[in-house]
Amino acid sequence: MPDGPLLFQPLKLRSVTLPNRVVVSPMCMYSAQGGLANDFHLVHLGQYALAGTGLIIAEATAVSPEGRISPEDLGLWEDRQITPLGRVTDFVHAQGGLIGVQLAHAGRKASTYAPWRGRGAVPIERGGWDVIGPDATPYSDAFPQPHAMTEEDIERVTEDFRQAARRAEIAGFDVVEIHAAHGYLLHQFLSPLANTRTDGYGGTFENRTRFVLEVTRAVREVWPRHKPLFVRLSATDWAPGGWDESQTVVLAGLLAREGVDVLDLSSGGLTAAQQITLAPAYQAPFAAQVRAAVPDLTVMTVGMIDTPERAEGLLQNGDADLIALARPVLGDPHWVQAAARDLGGTLEVAAPYQRGTRTT
Q1: Which of 1, 51, 151, 285 has the smallest count of CB within 10 Å of its CB?
Q2: What is the pTM of this model?
Q3: Which residue among the candidates 184, 201, 282, 353 is catalytic per the annotation?
Q4: Domain residue limits, the chain
């Protein structure tokens, strides 16, 4: 048995060893211009490295301009976006930290306002753009009307993910995560509620999962073999007739065969009709189900894990291997230091911050 809390035990993923099991979940900050990272991203992400967080995952980063959620999203669709993100990864590494990036395409949920700037679709005259999806059904009346993707569009977007992963390696990221959750493009193809196609990318489970498997294969081909690959899935749509836990378990096994190392399990976001029963750690059972069914995968859980004791309990129960935190660390960037004090864990932090770990 390991000494001390599991939350502060290292975890080896290929050649990358996380010093602890606390992960900063990707959180959209809507603070970029032209997809370019700036000083905000350096400070925002860098603070988690100073605190000693096990892994930081940068927000949903668009693989193409049309794939942005909002005009202010980060991007990796062109080479000039590499250097600004490299500033961030260089700083994190200088503090002894590890950092990943979530590669994303918003599909029919693209071209929308940042939360504090408005709601729904951004019109073309205000910087919006035409959006795409599995079919021509919008997310809701307030969202853009998508164009149904052709097979050529699917091939192009797959290549966009491949090239973004190549740029992520040049930028110095330790981990790449493919975003296939929260109602964005890859999730849209998975769910019968958003995918009414009748070709090889719609209808059966095999067809609906084809796109995400092709994207995963393309990314794994260019992402270095010694670096881990994550995929984020919504385990359920929380709506009748949609994507659900049983399909997630089967897809998890297929992703493991494609070289995925970590499954990051969230839920929802696909339909405005979703009915979610919220409770502390309400998504952990999804992670536990996948972890039991697909032992080759490392599993991460996220959602309403508000205390160190709850995070530790999930690990002790075998529900998950990693704990991803969003709002808790947004409210307290040094959450991991407080957790180490509360649980009696050993935490390595940047030298100037080491006095803050003392109890006397």
Answers
A1: 1
A2: 0.97
A3: 184
A4: 6-357
122-168 per-position pLDDT tens digit? 999 999 999 999 999 999 999 999 999 999 999 999 999 999 999 99
Q: Contact at 8 Å (CB) between 320 and 287?
A: yes
Closest CA to 107 of 160, 34, 168, 59: 160
User: What sections of the chain are H helices per DSSP?
Assistant: 39-51, 82-94, 151-171, 185-190, 205-208, 210-222, 245-257, 284-293, 308-316, 327-331, 335-343
Q: Is the dihedral of CA 105, 108, 114, 115 positive or negative?
A: negative
Q: For residue 359, is pLDDT > 80?
A: no
Sign of the CA dihedral with 32 first, then 33, 34, and 39 last: negative
Q: Any catalytic annotation for residue 113?
A: no
DSSP per-residue codes, 149-191 = PPHHHHHHHHHHHHHHHHHHHHHT-SEEEEEE-TTSHHHHHH-
Residue 74: what are its φ and ψ, rounded to 5°? -65, 155
Q: How far apart are CA 320 and CA 133, in angstroms?
A: 32
> Largest Cα–Cα distance of the chain, in whole Å?
66
**C-alpha pair distances (Å), 238 with each of 10, 35, 143, 184, 234:** 34, 32, 20, 15, 10
Decide yes or no: CATH 3.40.50.1000 for domain 6-357: no
Count CB neighbours of 39 within 10 A. Answer: 12
